[in-house]
Amino acid sequence: MTEPTRYSTPPIELPLDLDLDREPDPIDGCAGCVELAAVRDRARIVGDWTSVSDCNVFIRRHPEGH
């Protein structure tokens, strides 16, 4: 059996930033944005962080269509 690889420096640990204050707000009067925010809220309740992130991306990009 071979010896595991050794590194001269410890690994870099990146911070986990779950600052929910940075989430985009839906545009007032836009049904699409309101629905995305509702899906995001339901995903957060069940711990589906991938869907929360996806909804944030879609809400940020959605105003381009307005």
From TrEMBL:
Domain of life: Bacteria
Natural source organism: Streptomyces laculatispora
Listed name of the protein: Uncharacterized protein
Taxonomic lineage of the native organism: Bacteria, Bacillati, Actinomycetota, Actinomycetes, Kitasatosporales
